[in-house]
Amino acid sequence: MLIQSLRATAHPVALILAAAITIGVAGCGGESTSMSENSSSAFAEIKNAVWSDTPIEGDIVSPTDVKDFETPGPQNVTLAGRIDAGELEVFDQSNATFILSQLPDESHGNGDPDHADNCPFCQRKLKNAPKAIVRITDDQGNPLPIAADDLLGLKKDDVVVVSGEAYFDKTLNMVMVKANKIAKR
Length: 185
What we know:
Helix content is 32%, strand content 24%. By secondary structure, the protein is an alpha+beta fold. The protein has a single domain, classed as CATH 2.40.50.140. α4 (63-67) links the parallel β1 (60-61) and β2. α1 packs antiparallel against α2. It is globular.
């Protein structure tokens, strides 16, 4: 589980992230929902509503852009990122939550796909960029009790575009995203 991986690192940011995910997942009653025929049907409906086989249009922003928004609070955004959390687990197996890392600045490397791997400026910028926690929720705003990789067929290192409501949480140094649409890039 993502939370267990985070706790195992004993890194302060990891522990804060684990707490944030636990609080978000627990909800009011902290009850888990078992997979049943009705929930499978509901998950399929949500998958059809959230997943997009076509590119998502809009001005694409990064987690750093969301952090730097002048207006605080949730805003509708189209965010691009790589499903990656370094050595941590990117998918929480108990709910539809995953972590995105910022993509390298495409305009900086003159089209060289390996530029970010060799550029100290890009490496520092990516290392210091906030991560984004993406949640796929039900109508009440609770993360679905199924792993996002199982629900959408995503895997680590996929580059995705997420459209939804996002805000920067200063306490966690993380961007929190409630996904409306997700597509592979």
